[in-house]
Amino acid sequence: MKVLKFGGTSVGSAARMKEVAKLVCDGERKIVVLSAMSGTTNSLVEISDYFYKGNTSGALEKINSLEQKYIATIAELFSTDKYRNECAGIVRSHFEYIRSFSKSVFTLFEEKAILAQGELLSTAMFHLHLLETGHNSALIPALDYMRINKNAEPDTAYIAEHLPKLLEANGKAEILITQGYICRNFYGEIDNLQRGGSDYSASLIGAAIHAEEIQIWTDIDGMHNNDPRVVDDTKPVRLLHFEEAAELAYFGAKILHPTCILPAKLNNIPVRLLNTMDPSAPGTLISNRMGTGKIEAVAAKDNITAIKIKSGRMLLAYGFLRKVFEIFESYRTSIDMITTSEVGVSVTIDNTKHLDEIVNDLKKFGTVTVDSNMVIVCVVGDMPYENVGFQAQVVNALKDIPIRMVSYGGSNYNISFLIKAEDKVRALKALSKELF
User: Are 359 and 370 in contact (CB under 8 A)?
Assistant: First the structure.
């Protein structure tokens, strides 16, 4: 069985939902994972913000506006009064549920319950559309099987135990529809897998049922070899290794959520990235197969901050790096890149929430310098050190770009450079010209 995930843009209107229905109804049994309609989650975040601030009238105004969008979608999606009225009733109940939070104390728990409504709405509408068009569809609630543990990590044993039972209970259904992103936590409360988590949902589902293939459908023809928003004539990469895809996803390739890779990789399930706007395009296939001796793609990660700690005491001092890393750990701030010398260490972060506290603590160990508004440019491919020449080719492409940091050797799949944001476009174009 295959698992097909469709993002918010793919189900962002009645017309798009109808196209997705044509794609999935091909006679093969499959699981279809849906995100919320595009723009919905952002609206729900905004509604929650109004509730947090105690501005009930502002929240209700936004709720009414969002509900009108769904009412208009229902009018276009359904052709019979029976299903149109049934869907309208379901949508109405969800929005009444959201409105009910105006009468209670609003916390993070209530916000997560509100954020779950987007996926619950899109899957209910899509399920009813399939029924109206004569297809055998079943709705499998993610809240009945998708769970995270005390550490907010997926409880894979729980998922693998409960999901097959639900599939078996709906054994006659051809299309099994479920929600991405949402789950329950260890205590049974509504929670989520964080933004972009629908990719993660699809991968976890695929791993739990030992799927034949996981397909991620978006509005882009696979993962491109550079950023098509700033570089002309980019091309989809047809084959990628899981490690290469993980590097690209982490360092800026927005088409795929970085967390999606691991469950599929561990269970040796290929992931195919496809385009709902052009279903016949081959897209990108990600698997454990490695193309040898080739640079595959370039990605860039914005909004990076570099921190340099310079200390004469670092010379020959064991334990220095541990103390530095413990500071970042205490503020739950992850490090992207790291370079060291005898007298200092430089690291990069993309979360500056606790930057002032981190810098203040680091000053106990040396002189601290902070460079903001930086970008990490990542070049990905088969690049172990034995494959001579690739490193020189990449560096040569950036010979006119000021480089703040270089990271190489952490894996056999990437070389990363830290540059100023103002040099990003020039660097990406130079790499495309030299490498591709």
Answer: yes
